Amino acid sequence: MSEINTSVTILDVAREAGVSYSTVSRVLSGYNYVKDSTRERVLEAVERLGYVVNQQARSLAGGKSGVIGLLVPGLDNGYIGEIARGIDEELTKSSYDLLLYTTHRTSTEASYALKMTKGLADGVLLVVPLLTTGYIETLREQNFPYVLIDQVDPNNRSSVVDSLNRQGAYEATQYLLGLGHRRIGFITGLMKLRSAEERLAGHMAALRDAGVSVEEDLIQTGDFWRREGYEAAERLLNLHNPPTAIFASNDLSAFGVMEAVRAYGLQVPHDISVIGFDDIPQASLVYPRLTTVRQPLDEMGRIAARLLIEQIENPDRPIRHVTLPTSLVIRESCQSPQQSWLDLRR
Amino acid sequence: MSEINTSVTILDVAREAGVSYSTVSRVLSGYNYVKDSTRERVLEAVERLGYVVNQQARSLAGGKSGVIGLLVPGLDNGYIGEIARGIDEELTKSSYDLLLYTTHRTSTEASYALKMTKGLADGVLLVVPLLTTGYIETLREQNFPYVLIDQVDPNNRSSVVDSLNRQGAYEATQYLLGLGHRRIGFITGLMKLRSAEERLAGHMAALRDAGVSVEEDLIQTGDFWRREGYEAAERLLNLHNPPTAIFASNDLSAFGVMEAVRAYGLQVPHDISVIGFDDIPQASLVYPRLTTVRQPLDEMGRIAARLLIEQIENPDRPIRHVTLPTSLVIRESCQSPQQSWLDLRR
DNA sequence: AGCAATTTTGCAAGCGTTTGCAATAAAAAC
DNA sequence: GTTTTTATTGCAAACGCTTGCAAAATTGCT
């Protein structure tokens, strides 16, 4: 690193070390059949010249780019951030670089797939809630390594990392029931996503198993965003007979719920208990701190990255489906139902 | 996109269209001297074959990769997320891709610089609080396009996008003074960063201009992280004569402050007012919602990206320094000092 | 010392583009 | 109808590296 060099190539190093350029290449890519003394000489030359490999050329010639693509819907979401953090941590260990794509970029998601398969990345990690199936198909047909995160392949032919959504929701509802709640409002996620479906299913199952009848009004449609969480909560609060607890399908919408509750002059958890799903970092930041179902998002990212790398380095590895457990994180946003504010209101 | 092709190259397209491969290349890179009818024929062939350009090859040959590097300290921080979002939005428009590097990866930051200059990226955006100067120097010496975000070049020879830290802090303190506070605790940021310095300076200036004497105990050292915020707040609360308001150098530490205040059985803002800096998304999520100095983080990212692209496309553009205004966002975490809880305690 | 086996090295042929230069075709000017 | 000028196209040479193949050097055995 002593020189200001615009372009030291492998040839320069070869000359400096007095060997052929292919030998340099072999030293650099960790080939075994190189005499130790030669290797040393080359390494010294590399150091002296401040040589740095040109990735583009390397991947053009070698077919590997050392880059992994990450396709996400956007960055405005603690959820994605956590997953990305896990991925990044894992990639660091393996010295892969991370190429970030956000799908809001264009509507033609499929074009990304192609672009990535064309040399830019060696594999791709998909956190794309609104994944079109065709997209996955393209990837699979081209036999391009990829792993889905928190998203299922309808055909079950992809490697996937997700978590026990259904069970997590089941436990959350069970917890509320255990506190004595009987009228529990539920705000769904974006129902075209499997995770949203499963959370709803878990909730319903818990009610059913507890012999609590399901009231249709108590299930409100949301979309995993805060705003809808707010509005769905309003609808619940406006009910003739409002719930004593609200279970939002993710933390973000739970925040919206808390806001709505507050806007109605009520207190969490005193008047209404609120529970979320995900446990994004903000969950412990809000006040009262949110009780929620923890998905190990960073861990999911880490595992997905690991799976992908394995698949890249060993192409005929069979696909895998890893499902991580969720866990209930009890904080301060839930308590047993008090004398109803509704009663006071009367 | 009709074919399942593992490797349609420009040659295949050329054959299909009945032209030479260089003509195809020219059509694809938007060269002007191509007959319309030819262009059309080529485009059709591209479509028919599902051809996608190979970026690696393109950049090897053409020297441009269409990728911009983003170097950040980590992802665990709403602050970075906002900046990244702005950058991403801007890059989308220009069809650049984003390569993400986190510095926690290795301690040898400088090696990234080199790696990026070697073909992987056309330019780099740096949000690296702990920037070593040598790093910047390397980039500049190689004449590699880069822009610093919220970080100054001690030598003033880099393009920079930052915000009016000093003034923002000045206004925040002024606001607290205006509410009637006289004993204001201040928690610094990581003092080796310019922004931390400037915020402190702004605070002091406001006090001085208002004729309020500065008490050394009221200035506590922090590091921009929540934990230190908590601990610094504890130190302030333990003072013989505690402050009635606390100004934390960023939102994250303000959250720590709020937590500490609560741990002491006190209420924000009733017993103690808290004000932050940054206005990260979480600021409006906490309760009470945090009054803070807004830095237009996404806008900073956007502008930095724009500056960088301009520099890439026009290398001898002079460096620029853009400083964005901050603004006070008044929410609910501050109010006039009440009868002191201290008094009650006596 | 002689020969086979094994380790090291070098050469050359790509990898899929871009681009300068030269050739050809078309249009304009004389 | 020529000669210029301008618009189109093609060829070939990079870009910096990896890797198969073969030659050279070294080592181990007999």
Structure in words:
- The structure is a homodimer of 346-residue chains.
- Mean pLDDT of chain A is 88; it is low at 1-5.
- In chain A, helix 1 packs across helix 3, helix 5 (78-94) packs across helix 12 (297-313) and helix 10 packs across helix 11 (251-263).
- In chain A, the strands form 2 sheets. In chain A, strands 2-1-3-4-5-11 form a 6-stranded parallel beta sheet, with helices on both faces.
- Chain A starts with 9 loop residues before the first helix and ends with a helix.
- Chain A has 346 residues and is of the alpha/beta class.
- The first copy, chain A, contains 13 helices and 12 strands.
- Chain A folds into 3 domains: 10-53, lambda repressor-like DNA-binding domains (434 Repressor (Amino-terminal Domain)), CATH 1.10.260.40; 67-163 and 297-324, Response regulator (Rossmann fold); 165-295 and 329-345, Rossmann fold, CATH 3.40.50.2300.
- Chain A has helices spanning 10-17, 21-28, 36-49, 55-62, 78-94, 109-120, 133-141, 165-179, 194-209, 226-237, 251-263, 297-313, 341-345, and strands at residues 67-72, 97-102, 123-126, 146-149, 159-163, 184-187, 219-220, 245-248, 273-278, 291-294, 321-324, 327-329.
- At the A-B interface, helix 4, helix 5, strand 2, helix 6 and helix 11 of A face helix 4, helix 5, strand 2, helix 6 and helix 11 of B.
- Strand 2 of chain A pairs antiparallel with strand 2 of chain B.
- The structure holds a DNA duplex (30 and 30 nucleotides).
